[in-house]
Structure formats: C-alpha cells, structure tokens
Write a structure and sequence with these properties.
Layout lengths: L3 H11 L1 H25 L20 E2 L1 H11 L4 H13 L6 E2 L2 H4 L8 H23 L8 E6 L8 H8 L7 E6 L5 H19 L1
Parallel strand pairs: 3-4
Antiparallel strand pairs: 1-2
Helix pairs in contact: 3-4
Length: 204
C-alpha cells in the first residue's frame, strides 16, 4: 500500500503544471486577503496637536564669549583647542543669548557630576511637560504613552520613568526611553510614538 506522502510526491511529479497552478492560486488568494485587510483597516492618521520649547531662566543665559572665557579659565585647553571651539560656536547657529546649565555657568570649577546632570534634565523635561499639559488641557491620568529620547545622558531610573513617577501616570502607561542614537533619535522617537498610537487606536 502506497503511503499518502509518496502518493502526493508522485502526483506532483506527474502533474507539474497543475501544482504550479495551485501555487499561483494560493499566492493570489493570500495577496487578495492582505489587500482586503489593508483597505478595510487603513492606518489611522496621527497628528501633532501641540508642542512647547522649554526656555531656561535668564540666570542661565550667556554669550559665546562667556563660553570661551570659561573654557580658557579652566587651563586645560590649548590655543588650538580654543580656536577650534570659537569656530565651532560661530558656525553652530547659537546666538549671543544662548543658555548653559547651572553646573557649567553658575560655579567654578564646573560641576559636571551625574547629580547635576540629572537636575538639568529634570529642569528641562518637567518645565516642558508642565507647560504642555496646561497648554493642551490634558491631565496626567489621560496619558497612555510616554516616549523620551536623549542621545547623551542615560540614567537609572530612566528619564521616561522619571516622568511617569512625577505625574503619577499609572501602571498601564507604556513608557519608552531611547538613547545613544545621535541626531536621528528624535525622528525615531516620533516614529515610535506614531506607530504606538496607531496600534492603540486600532485595538480600541
């Protein structure tokens, strides 16, 4: 008695055109199914409703000349280093009323500790978040997704966890902390937020 597997193999060998036709038919059915799924469930549009840019207090305002003066005062940079800094500042797009963190402008020698960096992060993030919540008229408990991107500073607890804890966003909030991706990190964070919102809307 011939086994089913051998019978199928013999059938395929003797009817290659029929097997090819079956393959094509299955592929077309799969493509039609995917197209139907896409047209009946189109991607939801995601829009930016509002934004804010944090502005530090005037006490942290400084000129490019002051930045160079502080760098020279440290006594660890050569004239070539300082000349390179000057050229970089001139081409950076920074104006004469830019800002530096308190650890660099407010004390001498500069305080570049982890604690000072975290204080700077809290000042900027909380300042921006609180202004945005007021501007958009949104309460903390209404937030379901938090995405934070910071290329150079990584700490524990994370910056996103810092926001969740500060504004008591609850256990169900989706929290993502991105870092170490350079200038492209901001775009990746926006893209992640967009896709998370699309999935969330689709599941509702």
């Amino acid at each position: 008695m011939v086994s089913p597997a051998i019978f199928i193999l013999n059938f395929i060998e003797n009817h290659p055109n029929l097997f090819f036709t079956l393959q094509m038919t299955l592929c077309l059915i799969l493509i039609a199914f995917i197209l139907n799924l896409h047209t009946t469930n189109p991607s939801r549009k995601v829009y930016l409703l509002d934004f804010v840019c944090y502005k530090p207090p005037k006490s942290l305002q400084c000129s490019k000349g002051l930045i160079l003066e502080r760098a020279r005062r440290l006594g660890i940079f050569s004239e070539d280093n300082l000349d390179f800094m000057k050229k970089t500042l001139e081409r950076s797009g920074l104006g004469e009323s830019t800002y530096l963190p308190a650890g660099l402008i407010g004390v001498y020698p500069p305080n570049m500790s982890l604690g000072e960096a975290r204080k700077e992060a809290e000042m900027v993030i909380f300042g921006a978040v609180e202004e945005l919540l007021v501007k958009a008229g949104v309460k903390g408990e209404e937030i379901g997704i938090v995405v934070v991107n910071c290329s150079a500073f990584s700490t524990v607890p994370s910056l996103s966890a810092m926001i969740v804890n500060r504004y008591k966003l609850g256990e169900k909030v989706l929290s993502y902390n991105l870092g170490g991706m350079g200038c492209s990190g901001g775009l990746r964070a926006i893209s992640l937020a967009k896709h998370l919102l699309q999935v969330r809307l689709y599941l509702q």
